[in-house]
Amino acid sequence: MKIAQIAPLTEAVPPKGYGGTERIVSFLTEELVGLGHDVTLFASGDSVTSARLAPMCPQALRLAPDVRDALAPHFMMMETVFRRAHEFDVLHFHLDYWPFSLFSRQATPFLTTLHGRLDLPELWPLYETHANVPLISISDAQRAPMPNANWARTIHHGLPGNLLTPIEGVQPSYLGFIGRICPEKRVDRAIEIAERCGLPLKIAAKIDRVDRDYYEQQIRPLLARSPHAEFIGEISDSEKATFLAGAQALLFPIDWPEPFGLVMIEAMACGVPVIAFGHGSVPEVIEDGRTGFIVDDVGGAVHAVDRALHLSRDDVRRRFEERFTARRMAEDHVALYTQLVHGRRIRIPAAAE
């Protein structure tokens, strides 16, 4: 099958640091190539892939300080894909609603994975207007604000099986936090949990420009006062296994309807339990009492830290292998592409089915 994967240009594929969407596009693309498909990746020119790379800008836009209008390169990319659409059996976009209008006016089957939050009322009329575009959700919970949209399937994220693995012989001695410093990720809760447990907290996180004021005004003072918290900054995939190996648990104290939460399965791949607040996708990803604990508040998280030590790290890793590999993710996509290309009905209510 000839497949086009169309990625955001904000980060490279895979990203050099933090970047969930681009990382998933990379994993999916590589697995599709491994399954024998002819894949073209439309992405930034500094992307690295075994597929055919169609570079749409010299480097990831976040790393290009001279680029002041990030929309222009994206719309040029969509025009390029539109002109080449006849070369492919299926077009798979990772740009939310941006391709809907243009690509509804051409013949090649296309679909879009929605990677972000949908609880924004200003979005809903647009999806109603383009009700025939097949949509992939990354969790069933993500669908909740738009239950009547044209959902084709929920496909949970996956990681290459050998990307992150447990490291033997390391004694867990701290709590870990990986993600972004922003209000919805609630690193302030993580700091409080660590303080109440009397454990060190290591924070491996990115600070976007839009969140810089939040960091300076809300989080930096907490770090300055806390003897437990250490801010490390962004880490790469190659650093995550070592970072997670020393963690008693990964803290995921979110305060928003998380569409998926890739870091949860990264921790599971390393055999590390996750202590997560039960918003969004969390109940679909974490098996309470087996791969971690789902809690309602800081007190519940504090209580869960000691309990996490009694979970089997081998079992956490095993459940990752059974549920969240990139090969499973790619096979789910191929089944959906095949249905779409052959014009069969593809509306499937939810992942559980």
Automatic annotation (TrEMBL):
List, alphabetically, the Gene3D superfamilies matched: Glycogen Phosphorylase B
Question: Per the database record, which ranges form the Glycosyltransferase subfamily 4-like N-terminal domain?
Answer: 18-125
- CDD domains (alphabetical): GT4_AviGT4-like (cd03802)
The residue ranges of the Glycosyl transferase family domain are: 172-322
Q: Which Pfam families match?
A: Glyco_transf_4, Glycos_transf_1
Put simply, this protein is called Glycosyltransferase family 4 protein
Q: What InterPro entries does its record include?
A: Glyco_trans_1, Glyco_trans_4-like_N
